[in-house]
Design brief:
This protein is mostly helical and about 90 residues long. It is built from three helices and two strands; from the N terminus they run αββαα.
Amino acid sequence: ILFNMEDEVSGTKVLYKFAKDNELIKPNGGILEDKIISKEKVDVLSTVPGREEIIIKFMQCLKGPAFGIAGCMNNVNASLVRAISAVSKKQSN
């Protein structure tokens, strides 16, 4: 019997990880939100990313475009500096 009041996914992950090392443990089903769920649904639930994993992936998705924009802005600044330098060299010759 496993009780987890915080997160539906993390408890099943811990149970399945423990069950891999202990052949006597075999999940047969569960209760989720006051409803009985089958072993197959518990199996699926154990493979779903947990809340923290989802938040981390979401933050990484947000971070990617920000770095892309920063890189583009840096390239624009670098290109401007190179262009000014080239014009300066051309005028000094």
